[in-house]
Design a protein that fits this description.
Two copies of one chain form a homodimer.
Chain A: H1 11-29, H2 38-48, H3 55-66, H4 71-92, E1 102-103, E2 106-107, H5 109-113, H6 115-134, H7 142-159, H8 164-174, H9 181-206, H10 211-238, H11 241-244, H12 250-253, H13 259-283, H14 291-302
Antiparallel strand pairs in A: 1-2
Helix pairs in contact in A: 1-4, 2-6, 3-4, 3-9, 3-14, 4-6, 4-7, 4-9, 7-9, 8-9, 9-10, 10-13, 10-14, 13-14
């Protein structure tokens, strides 16, 4: 692990530096692979270090930074959101759910470790995420402790039955049924948007954001949360499995309604571009402080995997 | 729901009053059954209100009370430990794990709602448990906020790969193999003892316990945590499914090592009685304040289901 550049030349370099910090922090946040019982730690690390793009943790750090917060203060949430994102993938890939064999170009957890360990590895990632949020150095000020608890509440809300879990339930129930544009948007605001929103809002809370910045960042989070899913649907319809690192064309095969099936490919792309514009507008008043968030909004929409 | 008696006549009456308070608090802590998406809330409530004895939440409240803490302050942890206990049962019962059709005399979650929803219901209970711990009224003092975070850290540790989840992994790996007494004790200290220990220690922390009381309660927690599992093994070997409300004789059928298979039925009963004695000794210095904890230690060992 190379030391990150403390003064990166631009948003792309800043992004790389933050990613490296996140990798190191995730590694420190978990017991070593050989810790008792070894099976579960192998399984947890297998999925957490499977080559994820770390978009969620970087969003946390970028949001905290945009309001003048420290990376040290934001890093536990950065790690927690990546653990929660990974747990949701491990459980969603299970045979009883989406039944996927491939994730980020590698066999899914249950293909490698069996279903029982995959279920427990997801449980372990979810548990460790919240445990990490509760670990606070003894010398912390009352204000920092309160901000930590507030960010944890935002995270809990986003991952619950009104967010991540609720979205997955509705997604499963929507298979083989046609749903309209409003229902589709509701589903994805819960399944994808809620956690992305918690990254931005939680990071801003930990950074000590004032009310007006919080409102700006909430608008930004809403736009990129939805954009993320629209782009996912476009990629599922247009890209190869090799490039995606997961099974392609699954949505159509499963009879799922997507932005592409509801709005057409051109309509979905237009929607993504519109949402990118909304995200950029929201953080424009932050000026240079918001440069990394603006860069991330472009990355989310222009990515090809 | 009848109002609990504020001045119960003895430990048995106090216990009933606390149980009623826990039922009401659990109900308030969850979205209503019809909330979007309805399926997941039905599944969560189905398992959480399936007739559990609420031993863990009562332990939390009893430990907080034994050191002079308030029920209001301890109730979120009381609800959280019951949610986590229930999530662990829902996931352990899955076909990929212990494959159980019956729990507390009712069909298990996956038999009623299917595997996908059962997995998500477990995830939802685990998530809500930690979310609940992070919800703190705005007017709370800094001390109360810090105690809440400290109790959450104790809970996170107990539910992680060194506790509840680690124990389940080792339990699965032990099926069909003979393990010795020390390995069996290690397994159960993780799988059952860690969460019971967190109930007592977490309740004591929320109650503002002094160091000497914390140490006493930790000894009590260790003893009843292990006693709980020893008695479970005795009951599995001796009681009918009808009385247990779950499949009986499963351990032997699965080729699992238990306290009965390792120490014999008489040896296991002797071990349970010895642990009850240790628990009672640990709380004896608390006098009347520890009466409910002493009552619970007797209940855990003398129960028949």
């Amino acid at each position: 692990m190379t030391a990150p550049n403390p003064e990166p030349a631009g948003p792309a370099a800043a992004l790389e530096g933050l990613r490296a910090e996140v990798e190191a922090a995730l590694d420190r946040a978990l017991p070593p692979e050989g810790a008792w019982p070894a099976t579960i730690h192998r399984a947890v690390r297998y999925s957490l270090f499977a080559g994820g793009k770390r978009i969620r943790p970087v969003l946390v750090l970028a949001a905290a930074g945009a309001v003048g917060g420290s990376r040290e203060e934001a890093m536990p949430l950065a790690c927690a959101v990546e653990m929660i994102h990974t747990y949701s993938l491990v459980h969603d890939d299970l045979p009883a759910m989406d039944d996927d064999d491939l994730r980020r170009g590698k066999p899914t957890s249950h293909k490698v470790f069996g279903e029982a360990v995959a279920i427990l590895a997801g449980d372990a990632l979810l548990t460790r995420a919240f445990h990490l949020m509760a670990e606070v150095p003894a010398g912390w000020s009352d204000g920092r402790v309160r901000r930590r608890l507030a960010a944890t509440a935002v995270l809990g809300e986003a991952c619950g039955t009104g967010g991540l879990i609720g979205g997955q339930v509705v997604d499963l129930e929507s298979e083989g049924r046609t749903i309209d544009g409003a229902a589709l948007e509701g589903l994805h605001r819960a399944k994808t948007g809620a956690l992305l929103g918690a990254c931005v809002r939680g990071g801003a809370i930990l950074g000590g954001a004032a009310e007006d910045d919080l409102a700006r960042l909430a608008r930004y989070a809403d736009a990129i949360g939805l954009a993320f899913q629209v782009v996912d649907d476009v990629l599922d319809a247009t890209e190869s499995a090799e490039r995606l690192g997961k099974t392609a064309g699954k949505d159509e095969a499963a009879g799922k309604s997507t932005y592409v099936s509801v709005h057409g490919l051109a309509g979905a792309r237009r929607k993504a571009a519109e949402l990118r514009g909304q995200a950029l507008d929201a953080v424009a008043p932050l000026g240079e402080r918001g440069a990394l968030l603006a860069h991330l909004a472009r990355l989310v929409v222009d990515r090809t995997s």
